[in-house]
Amino acid sequence: MKLSTPTPKPTLQAWLDSASAPAKDWLATNAGTSVAYLRHIAKGRRDPGGVLALSIEQLTTTAHHATGGQLPVVPREELARACGQCEFARTCRASAAGKVL
After folding, report:
1. Residue range 57-66: average pLDDT?
2. Domain residue spans in the chain?
């Protein structure tokens, strides 16, 4: 059996690198997970489900606004394979950006 190569999640890694320890704890607690698990996701060792990916996106959007844009928004499509492959998600993102698919 061939093991797949982990696919790092650069935006989540950037968020974790930039955030303070209390901010990381806040994200993990409110997402219903741990900072260690967030690190595993960022390194590509774990693939979160759609619900956790959505929660992380919503929470990082809140943090982005609260920090005046210092922390990035982490898009769910980058975190969960299912979200990244979802045609509906791509259509919604394109529509929000004013693009026609």
Report:
1. 96
2. 10-96
